[in-house]
Amino acid sequence: MFYMDKLVVQGGKSLSGTVKISGAKNAVLPVMAAAILADGEYELDNVPDLKDVRTMSKLLESMGIKTETNQDKLKIFSSSPLSLEAPYELVKTMRASIYVLGPLVARFGYAKVSLPGGCAWGPRPVNLHIEGLRKLNADISIDKGYIVAKAGHLKGAHISLDVPSVGATGNILMAACLARGLTVIENAAKEPEIVALAEFLKSMGANISGEGTEHIEIEGVESLKPADCRIIPDRIEAATYMVAAHITNGDVNIINMDPVHVSAVIDKLKDSGAEISIENSSVNIKSSGRIKPVNITTAVYPGFPTDMQAQWMALMSVSSGSAIITDTIFHDRFTHVAELKRLGADITLDNNVAVVKGVKGLSGAPVMSTDLRASASLILAALVAKGRTDISRVYHLDRGYEKLEEKLNKLGAEIIREKEPIIT
Q: Which of 81, 191, 199, 309 is most deeply packed, by most CB within 10 A?
């Protein structure tokens, strides 16, 4: 019989204490891929222990790059020649695997990378990655589910992205470092993870300017050298714990975070009645005991992040009125709605707009995780629901939240992890 992990949550506990934020999953993955660009030894610090990080390590090792983990430190030993193929068996489990495409074709003139998988919701096409690399003089075709890229030498180009994709910006950024001449990325993603990647590449010897703005310039260099890196804190994890404190009428100190990276969420939490004080790299959030309804519309950074849309919906489910939640980034990212309704939430969904009418209380029930952030929303709702909630398929959570139940239990939650049989 096949078994999967589930979380059992006894709701009604108020959270209090201190929680430390881990390194950002979405920052460490492209940095790991960047090790393809130069032979040598890299040491990454503040690396989260997550399934996606382990998957990227396996992917690099399948190419011939050794990795070594010691607590929150990751050493990468990159040496050519490498296998220039990223196989389906690994890539299918994680969309970020496509980050190896740009570095491989930039350095070796060839890459064969499986079309990626990852979260189960909605199509997120890789066409922006492909078109960007094509403009850098790569010849790209799709062959039996693989992206095959070839280039004698990449050449600098002017690339204007249709949408400010984080993944495409990162891939083009890495590839352009070794391209001949100047590359300009217009409508580039401005997320902190892109800034962190650019800073790491610059420490390797890349010539980059404009990171953090819509206009990034990269002057190609002949070669790069290995470097060390401290991974920035995970802003989505930090924001999730902030919501957890507010939804449970708690009082929580959140340390090792960058408040600037979550300023949009902090502003909305203040509007909803939370008392927030900020000091350097820590935030204290104390619930006022009443959650006011607050509308949100997701937007590219520095707007309200789509990765917090589901968690905000859980919070609004127990607010004192009605709130409108609009996701302008991913129109189909609402698989959590049906599961939250199983707990008693009152939500009406129309395309990419959800109307959430706050209820006096939620009740525990069996629910199922469908993707990473949807899983987080179910945890938040379960923390405040009356009675027991069983959350199945929590492997999604393990992709993006390090030691989630351990951290929440230290704050006063009551969560245990169990095995459950899966009927096939």
A: 309
